[in-house]
Amino acid sequence: MTVDLVIVGCGGHGREIAELVRAANRVTDATPWRLLGFVDDAPSEVNRKRVQALGMSWLGPLGTLGELPRATHVVLGIGDPRARRVVAFRADTADLPYATLVHPDATVGGDLVSAEGLVVFAGARITTNVVVGRHVHVNQNATLAHDCVADDFVSLHPMATVSGDCRLGRAALVGAGAVVLPGRRIGAEATVGAGACVTRDVPAGTAVKGVPAR
Ligand SMILES: CC(C)(COP(=O)(O)OP(=O)(O)OC[C@H]1O[C@@H](n2cnc3c(N)ncnc32)[C@H](O)[C@@H]1OP(=O)(O)O)[C@@H](O)C(=O)NCCC(=O)NCCS
């Protein structure tokens, strides 16, 4: 018995999710995923070849989701939070269930309250009493610590560290290797630059960078 799964997006993020799925299938005692392939409106030639090189297929544009059996699960393989939100809006019309995917080398603590579409990559840590919205992605070796709340479409890029009791607004992005100090608030659609250290709250829709982040 397997569960069918389709990834939206042939880009690097989507293909990294395919690797996550393969890893999960190798060790899990849960029902394995059967990865049917990727949907993407306009995959570049090079990305189509990369998908093929993984032994997988591009199934067609996003509309293909509407032709799949009702039990087929979907995961959004779009790295940028704002782009992911736009794609989710379209994918929702297919009314297929979204998968939650946790790499076997990631850890997730107790009392995680999670909406659909959470993806937790290798080495990532979600500690304890965390709440996440829809389609939150925690990339390789990133940490979302105790008592944090991450709204829909939040992304933590690789090695980002969000300390305890932070609040991340809808579609906020914490860049690679950035640190958010305890209790800080990152507004909706704000971007924390790679390597930044956030010492003050970040207003919605703004971008900050550097140490301390400005
Ligand atoms: C901060 C950020 C949002 C700025 O994006 P941008 O506005 O397109 O910035 P630009 O590339 O035009 O650079 C503008 C200036 O900021 C500097 N800069 C860019 N990113 C920076 C960062 N993370 N820290 C410090 N300075 C940075 C550039 O050197 C440039 O400086 P200059 O004007 O003196 O030459 C972006 O660079 C970033 O860090 N995004 C996070 C993405 C990430 O983590 N990706 C990893 C994916 S795995």
From TrEMBL:
The active site is at residue 146. It comes from the Bacteria. One of its GO terms (molecular function) is acyltransferase activity. CDD domains: LbH_AT_putative (cd03360). Residues 4-88 form the PglD N-terminal domain. The record marks 147 as: Increases basicity of active site His. Keywords: Acyltransferase, Transferase. Substrate binds at residue 79. PANTHER family: ACETYLTRANSFERASE (PTHR43300), UDP-N-ACETYLBACILLOSAMINE N-ACETYLTRANSFERASE (PTHR43300:SF7). This is Sugar O-acyltransferase, sialic acid O-acetyltransferase NeuD family.
